[in-house]
Specification:
Blueprint (H helix, E strand, L loop, with lengths): L1 H7 L6 H8 L2 H6 L8 H22 L5 H11 L2 H10 L10 H5 L1 H24 L1 H11 L1 H9 L6 H13 L7 E8 L6 E8 L2 E8 L2 H15 L1 H7 L2
Antiparallel strand pairs: 1-2, 2-3
Length: 235
Amino acid sequence: MDSIEKQIDYNFLNPELLTEALTHPSFAEGNKSKSPNNQRLEFLGDAVLQLVLTHELFSMFPEFHEGHLSKLRARLVSNKALEECALEINLGSFMLIGRGVKQTWKRDQSAVLSDAFEALIGAIYLDSGFDKAKIFILRSCKTKIDQILAEPIKENPKTKLQEHLVKLFKLPQMDPTYHVIKQEGPGHNLLFETEVRWNGITLGSGKGKSKKESEQSAAQSALDQSLWLRADSCE
């Protein structure tokens, strides 16, 4: 285990915690071992990670509202982001994994690595406390954090439309509704057309290859076409 401790620049006081963090459930099952796997540590590490990143974002961006901060945090704790943090420290090469997962590694890699990374956070937290876990997170994820914070957030048009309507009319209970008005094309290539309505008024319509896509297109259409919504967004 010395190699991974050098890799992460942290020496465990209790090496058993490190072994547990690196043990995927499939390894214990395949070897009929009673040794603990990393699921409990992953549960703990997830909470520590959320707290560290929430505090960092709250401190870094005093001008951002709660919704914006939540979107940034969601991107930082996604499986894809955590997988990349795990790859930065070559975590996969130190893991104890069962034969079945090795055979499906290409498919399962993202989930396995992101879970193990959170488990490692949980192990460091139990071994040395919050401050050491925080240092590990911010150091290991620095590249990914910098990358995500530099990228603009693309707002969901459905959310944006609803926020504008609530802001303008102070009626949070009256959400816009979406109605499929046309569905055409063969089963493998369907095209949906959807209208978005609010308080009996059709605000816009849009098309898409799925209901979700057509709803987002309709919401964007409402935002683009309604001068009163655009004027409000510029305030």
